[in-house]
Amino acid sequence: MSESQDRGRRYDSTRLAWEDIWESASIEIELEAIGYERSQATLRAYLPYLPKDVPLLEAGSGLSAVVITLRQMGYRIQGLDYAINALRTSKLHDAGLPLVSGDVHALPYASDSLGAYLSFGVLEHFEHGMQPALKEAFRVLMPQGVLVLTIPYPNVVNWLVGWRRKQAGVSRLNDDDFYESTYDRGELVGQVTQAGFHIEQVLPTSHAYTLWGLGSVFRAPGYYRTSKLADRLGGLLKIVSPWAFNFSTLMIARKP
């Protein structure tokens, strides 16, 4: 059995789907989205944990918007992705970006060599689960190295979409070519601690973007931009019902 088959029948097709996504995407628009309040709130939450004096990695860096942003802030971060065209486009934007073609399950870095491992919306895309990638992250991190993840949460809107699809005779959210999962808070904590990490923070994020999924009045013109109503209501939901409308969970953990 091949390595990709070991990782599920949709491993290769999901990678190709990402290449299609990045082919039609724009670095400039991705950088603009980093400036959205929901993105800035996430950034503010994990920045205090990142060291500036050692190498960092974004695993699954896509069009490198996070890499570009953090390098401008003085962090020694590099990017890795298995979507070759995303790396190529990033290099056309800035030939000096330190980017590597690779797989999060077999990182081309020595053990105990990185100060932080960042991964945003990546580890939920593997049918075999996130344990193999988490263990590889643990391997390459220095002692006291930091793990930063965002993972989709099975929120109320996610449940409604699933219910509608079921009523329409569609049994799952995934199709035959693309795999995506969600993890609730307990499941995510269990996965991260099983890999050997100690939890620092587990935060619900992007409540306004959950509302964006409902459409109409919660959407503003632009690239996945939320309306002022969504931003205000999302801020309230973050206080009164933080987990029911949590779009993604920010996990910050540390290697002992």
Characterization of this structure:
The protein has helices at 3-6, 11-23, 27-34, 37-46, 65-72, 84-93, 131-140, 156-167, 185-194, 207-212, 228-240, and strands at residues 56-59, 77-81, 99-101, 114-120, 141-152, 198-205, 248-254. It is an alpha/beta fold. The model has no long low-confidence stretch (mean pLDDT 91).
Characteristic terms for this protein:
256 residues, alpha/beta, Rossmann fold, 7-stranded mixed β-sheet, 11 helices, 7 strands
Order of helices and strands: HHHHEHEHEEHEHHEHHE
**In terms of quaternary structure, what is this?**
single chain
Low-confidence segments, ≥5 residues, pLDDT <50?
none
The CATH topology is Rossmann fold
CATH superfamily: Vaccinia Virus protein VP39
Helix content bin: 40-55%
Beta-strand portion reads: 15-25%
Find the count of extended strands (DSSP E, 2+ residues).
7
Distance from N terminus to C terminus (CA atoms, Å) equals 35 Å
* Total domain modules: 1
CATH level-1 class: Alpha Beta
Structural class: alpha/beta
Radius of gyration equals 18 Å
**Which word captures the global form?**
globular
| Overall pLDDT confidence | 91
**How many distinct helices?**
11
CATH architecture: 3-Layer(aba) Sandwich
Largest sheet: 7 strands, mixed
Q: How are strands sequenced across the largest beta sheet?
A: 3-2-1-4-5-7-6
